[in-house]
Design brief:
This protein is mainly α. It has one domain: Alpha Horseshoe (Serine Threonine Protein Phosphatase 5, Tetratricopeptide repeat), CATH 1.25.40.20. It starts with a helix and ends with a helix.
Amino acid sequence: MTPLRELYDLYYYPNPAKEERRRQLLAEISTDARDEDNYGRTSLHIVAEFADCEAIASLLDHGAEVNDRDEEGHTPLFRLASRRSRVSALEEPIASAARLLLDRGANLPRSARGTTALIEAVQNRHHAMAAVLIGSGQRLDSANSYGDNALHILCRR
């Protein structure tokens, strides 16, 4: 198992007994290392997906590229927006992570091929994150590859 895959698993299957190992991996893995088994994602993609603001800030402080794209063309902001969660308690951490990424230079117009972070946030019901994105200047009429924008997605919900 690669260190990045181990890091992903430690986030996906949280275990307080393994918290120290997670922190160790974050400190050891180069910010530009890519997990070839997980679409070429970097550690920033992983911590963004799980809305870990402390780790996001630390990685950015150590040179991680906020707009780096994985093999699918997804940025860390997009990975955060595409996180599938129906737990409303996660809304504020997700919005805070989005705010942090934006404050540190995340690009809004196209955070993935053929779609936007706003469309993904709306589709995954991350309403607080959608509000942050709109407040940061994301255009409501930006469409995905099917011609749908965030308002189309909302109307289908």
